[in-house]
Write a structure and sequence with these properties.
2 domains; 7 helices; alpha+beta; two-stranded antiparallel sheet; disordered N terminus; Cyanate Lyase, Chain: A, domain 2; globular; 155 residues; homodecamer; 434 Repressor (Amino-terminal Domain)
């Protein structure tokens, strides 16, 4: 029954598959797609993976650029349910980030408390850049995160 | 038996407790301690927590600054065993970092592959800064990570 | 070594024990303590359990009210590390709350998205009340939560 | 074999898919659907997700409203098996609720014991509202839960 | 610090240890203790283990019977935090009960739904008896549970 | 390959689906089916769910009653592999049973040891009844379990 | 408080420590201790580890043999709570047994069903021997388990 | 794509399904199949389940006996990847074996060390028999394991 | 929808299946394939399993050798997401490696710190060989790993 | 009670602490200790950590070298129970080894099957070396493992 019911509609996973296929066919890069729709590469890739919602305008621009079916626009605008299945990620590139949180998490917390007060860095009002920094001992990956400081409420 | 055997020697946990107590008594900040020993606040806090090893010179400077017992120097120089007990951290300030890895981990991976090739950002040849960025809608926490790109070997 | 080092200072766990002992001895209630320091019972209990930080003023009022040692003031002001050890709580009173999140979590999410947009209810800029509502079929527990809506950033 | 056996009958998952598709096509909202069948948005969404059972009357009203096949009525009336697969939810909007239970669960428990006695708030004889509260510093999500107090039996 | 702070007061664990020691010394049985205080053996043992709260009257009777220190009365009256550390119990006698829930849980659920409607058996308004039933093929353990039926609310 | 190989034979899951479909179509209840084949409702439901094996005679009676295909008889006679996928069940009706084991498991164990000796209640030589007990404060669910006492062997 | 309360009584862990110390001092072996009290080595070691209960007679014989304090007798007679903390054992010698259950568990189950019917091998009415079997390619460890067949009840 | 690619070849799971179907059709038993190919029932069942590799000769004998397609021979010869998905098995017949490892694992280890030295019983150079032992109090299941003693290397 | 979308493109899993099928058909070995493309057996197998990325040149050589479809070349060049689903591997051959890490991990760490300083062996700039070493007491498996030493950064 | 009972005897943990303290005081290295007792550094460190048993001769040599109390000899000779508490190790130096098993485990397995047959590399009849290999792009850590090939038995 389900197959019949759901095949008439695209979901986020379908749109991600369409985007990846179109990106290959058109020889696009994430940098290039991001520039075309006027957004950052991190946010653009994340939204294409179904981990962020697009505004109508950005969704239309993406659909136009990648020649996706028009039904994809509404799907790209939907609020995603953010799910990851590996509590501890196994891919080495992602695990290193998990390790950094394990090793430096208490340090980041202490410095936020010292520098701002009792609160956190928001992961919602948040942005991130990933860039390449040339270095003669070997180029470096630079990750810059910025999140609004949120102080705990007392009531 | 054990109590007798181990009380004669400081371990990393003892030195961390001594540092925290001295920091309070002397009214120091992590920023201030870091400046005094000529290192960054992130690295300094991390080494004081027993999550990084100090050079002899930096250990001596710290011991002098905080008036720690001289035996602490050798302890600060030891290579730590980095252990965290919560697979998923519960403190909200640290959890948000875990969440960022869950949501944006695959994106960071994709952009590293696009920008560098098949490899990772090192978490060993690595540094990090945490700073406050004034913003009229509410100041922001900025976290900058930089790690050497390591390409996979083929043999 | 550690015992010597740490016995000179109170930590959050010690202060919680002192508060509970004093509360019993003085025949106080959480409602009463909260009223005395001019805060809500939920926040007051939470801060006494070491799960929230007090302002200097509130800490002084509490120490005065419960005749705690003056060193407790600084401890109550510290930013706590919020830790819970049971991923799934076993106490029936707390488990029911976990169950409500399991059953109604996706519903709350859907209604927030419908009512506000792509975002969340903050658990930081947040407050909560627990009250008794008389009811002839049996009185009811009312829990009211209020958190600032935080919309996802796009960049 | 199974495909043949089960395709002749709708299950709760199928009906949920039909509801979501019909809601989109008809441009309905959860608020609107709830009002149409004379129930609250929280309960209505939950029952549509297959996490609560409908009375015959409400099921008929919903089927009529959304033009679902008549077989859906009996499915909506069935007692669901409530299953959630993530012990710790990853979606940020749902995780924040889990975090609130972790941080404030013991506080809610203490206040129930102080205000009512040795017992719990029922999650069965229970209702909940989610509303938007305008606020000049940013609107707030208000969640109100009400459950019957159940005192422990002694025998 | 903590040792000093807490040694002045008995907690539930201490009272359990005092009860077990007194029970041995006085040659009492759980059946006997239960009869003496006019309660069932299941509830009596459970309250003595710190898993249920006693009324003032029952606590006094127990303290008198077992010659416990008078401070134990208030402790026995406190609402316990019910904690078990093994998600899957290893002791064979307890594991068999866990296995019964695994094998027959869905069956009990189906029969409750068929016999009562959409709801559950309360574990709060609940009582249990454990008795020996003579049988020529080997005596049998009989466990009788009775809990109030709680129907799900719709709102 | 697999589809071809296995579609020629019914397995326990198929037979369960056939039973549920037939039960609906014929307007049967578990009580009624159990009475028809001369067994208890608990055992009958459990065997229909594929969690117990039927004798040839009972399997034939069931197949006749529900007009199942004759191949179902052999399947109903097979020894099942009893599997449950949720270590901690999430459905509230089943979770309450798990909670009872957590809270009262050690009590049941203590009373078995006091009443019988060092041993357990068998979950194999075992039977159970679920019944409705009228009560003016609200009807109650009664669960009666009976298992053979098995004493530990010493050798 | 607790230390005072519990130091007056031996528990199973204490008696195990006393046995191990006495065994070393007296130069005994498990084989020898077992022979002296007229029981098998497997059961004797298990009871000495606190994983089985001794009869009064065997407990007395053991206490006499190893010159333990007389209070140890009652402790050895108590029904133990069998707890193991590693769900998957790490010690290679024990892990291999776990591996055998993983690899051959379904085979043992199939052969029991074929040879006996729908039931299990009891782990309660159970005994085991561990012996050395000389073999020119390297001696072998022989483990013989024997448990009563228990057939599932139907009711 | 995958379906096309893999349907041309049998894998171990397919061959297991073919064996079970053929065994039913031909009215064979595991005992009988084992005798026909000149191997033990434990090993034969295990190899048929895809948990051991057959020699070419045994695979041919089995294929001939059960009239399997000739492609099955190569599949039966392949080294299996031994996977079990339940860390703690739920089926009661298999769980009892897990329980035996939990209760008696340290005992088996102690007796191996006492009888052989510092080493283990191999689970690779290993064999096992399951037999029925008549007993007037109820027949018993006998499991005999034999594995080569492997002493730890020192270098 | 998805089936249509994805069947037009090969993914890493498809290519692995094609390689395994071709290897069988052509009677190739991993040693032989590796030699043909001028790489080591470990790396070649790993890349064929989709756990490493190939250069264009090596991918072309492999596709030519195994007569794979030309679309496979691009797939073999893609950076893989390295995922393993068993936290603790169950296959005995792989588990032994996990056990070696558990037993000797702290030793390898100590010797790296003694021999190199505070750092690690890279698992990215890494290579490995597996060879057979004849030995009259039984041939041995030799595994040689070599990874670049990476010293921790201080900043 | 326990403290009194166990303080009279050293256990493996005590001896490890004594070794580490003596090593520091005497300015020894693991390389040096190993050379002094005529064993490899890997095995020597492992035995000193209590993860392997020493022969009487090696234990005496070690005790003499490090001026340990003579009771340490018997402790060093005992068969250890090998326990590690982190299923997934967090220390980066050890995690990389875990990662290598995750990524290359199936490859090592495939090459062992191709090169030897259906069997494993023993982790018992096993040895390992860790050495430094100079390299102009950065020195490398070389880990060489050698374990006896064990072929699966068929019976």
């Amino acid at each position: 029954m389900k197959d019949q019911l759901t095949t008439s509609a695209l979901d986020k996973e379908d749109v991600t598959a369409l985007i990846i296929a179109a990106k290959k066919e058109l020889g696009q890069t994430w940098e290039g797609i991001a520039a075309s729709i006027g957004m950052s590469p991190v946010w653009t890739h994340s939204a294409c993976m179904g981990m962020n919602a697009m505004s109508a305008e950005k969704a239309q621009a993406l659909v136009l650029l990648l020649q996706l079916p028009p039904e994809a626009i509404a799907v790209l605008e939907e609020s995603p349910t953010k799910v990851w299945s590996q509590t501890v990620p196994t891919d080495p590139c992602i695990y290193r980030l998990y390790e950094i949180v394990g090793v430096y998490g208490p340090t980041i917390k202490a410095l936020i408390h010292e520098g701002f007060g009792d609160g956190i860095m928001s992961a919602i009002d948040f942005d991130m850049q990933v860039t390449r920094v040339p270095n003669e001992k070997g180029d470096r990956v630079k990750i810059e995160m910025s999140g609004k400081y949120l102080g705990y409420n007392a009531w």
